[in-house]
Write a sequence for this structure.
C-alpha cells in the first residue's frame, strides 16, 4: 500500500499579466503535478488537492484483533512553487499536508500532519526559444525527497501505525526525471518518466524503489488570446518494488498499477486550473493486497514574474 503524493510553497508577488497565448505545452517533470503548464521562464506558485483511496479485501491479514480493516482514504493539500534561475533551468519546491483516514469495522483512525518536502531541478536539453511555435521540448533532471513528515505516529493504544498510514517515512529519496513534449497544430503529446530511489530510515526500514511513466494527449482549444481550454487523456504505469526491513525483503509488498486518466486544463490570463480523474487497475501480487479505487486531483496556480 503506497501513495506517492508530493508538493509545496514559496511565494513571489512580483506579478505580470501573462497571456495564455504563451502556453507551449510542457508540464513539470518529476513533480507529480498533472497538467500542462506554461514555460518561457515564468515562475508559478500554486495549490493542489488530491484524493486517493484503497480497499482492503476480506483476508486474515486485514484484521486487527477482531476488527476488519475496510478502507484507507488519503487527502493531500499541497502547495508548490516553480522558479527559473535562468532560461534552461527550472527548480520546483513542493510540500504536502496530509490527512489519512482508516476505516475499520467498528472504529476509524485519523492521522494528520506535514508530508515529506521535495526539491526538483530540471534542465532543458533543447534550447528554449521565446515563441509559442516551438514544437519539441525535452527536460531532464533530478530531485530530493526530504524527511520532513512524521513517521512514528501512534494510535490511542500507543501502537505505531504502519508505514502506509504515516504522513512521512523518515527517509531521504532521490529522483531521476525525463520529460518530452511535442506540439503539432492543436495537439500536444507529453511523456513523463520518473525513477525514485528510496533510502533507509533510522528504523532500518526501506521502501521499495518506484518507476512511474505517463503519456498524455492534449487538444488545445482557444477561447481568445487570454483563454485556453485543454481536454486530455492519458495512460499511466507505476511499478513499486518490495520493501525491506533490517535488510529482509517483505514478500507481501510491492505493486504494479496501470491507470486510464481523463481531465481538463483551463488557462485564463495569469491563472490556470486543472482537474484529473484516474481509474486505476492493480496487478495483485498477493491476496491481501489493497485495491486502489478511482482517484483524482485539482490543481490551481498563478503565473508571476
Amino acid at each position: 500500500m503506497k501513495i506517492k503524493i508530493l508538493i509545496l510553497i514559496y511565494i513571489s508577488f512580483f506579478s505580470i499579466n501573462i497571456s495564455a497565448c504563451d502556453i507551449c505545452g510542457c508540464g513539470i517533470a518529476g513533480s507529480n503535478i498533472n497538467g500542462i503548464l506554461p514555460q518561457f521562464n515564468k515562475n508559478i506558485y500554486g495549490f493542489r488537492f488530491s484524493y486517493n483511496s484503497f480497499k482492503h479485501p476480506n483476508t486474515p491479514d486485514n484484521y486487527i484483533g477482531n476488527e476488519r480493516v475496510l478502507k484507507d482514504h488519503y487527502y493531500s493539500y499541497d502547495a508548490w512553487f516553480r522558479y527559473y534561475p535562468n532560461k534552461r533551468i527550472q527548480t520546483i519546491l513542493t510540500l504536502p499536508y496530509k490527512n489519512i483516514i482508516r476505516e475499520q469495522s467498528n472504529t476509524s483512525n485519523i492521522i494528520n500532519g506535514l508530508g515529506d518536502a521535495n526539491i526538483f531541478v530540471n534542465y532543458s536539453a533543447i534550447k528554449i526559444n521565446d515563441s509559442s511555435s516551438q514544437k519539441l521540448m525535452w527536460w531532464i533532471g533530478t530531485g530530493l525527497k526530504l524527511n520532513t513528515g512524521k513517521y512514528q505516529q501512534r494510535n490511542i493504544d500507543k501502537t505505531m501505525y504502519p508505514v502506509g498510514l504515516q504522513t512521512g517515512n523518515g527517509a531521504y529519496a532521490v529522483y531521476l526525471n525525463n520529460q518530452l513534449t511535442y506540439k503539432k497544430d492543436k495537439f500536444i503529446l507529453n511523456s513523463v518518466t520518473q525513477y525514485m530511489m528510496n533510502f533507509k530510515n533510522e528504523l532500518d526500514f526501506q521502501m521499495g524503489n518506484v518507476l512511474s511513466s505517463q503519456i498524455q494527449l492534449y487538444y488545445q482549444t482557444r477561447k481568445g488570446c487570454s483563454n485556453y481550454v485543454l481536454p486530455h487523456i492519458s495512460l499511466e504505469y507505476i511499478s513499486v518494488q518490495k520493501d525491506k526491513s533490517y535488510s529482509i525483503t517483505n514478500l507481501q509488498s510491492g505493486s504494479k498499477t496501470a491507470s486510464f486518466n481523463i481531465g481538463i486544463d483551463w488557462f485564463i490570463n495569469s491563472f490556470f486550473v486543472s482537474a484529473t480523474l484516474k481509474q486505476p487497475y492493480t496487478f495483485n501480487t498477493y491476496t491481501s493486497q489493497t485495491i486502489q479505487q478511482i482517484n483524482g486531483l485539482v490543481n490551481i496556480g498563478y503565473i508571476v514574474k
Q: What stands out?
A: The chain has one domain: 20-304. The chain is about 0% helix and 55% strand.
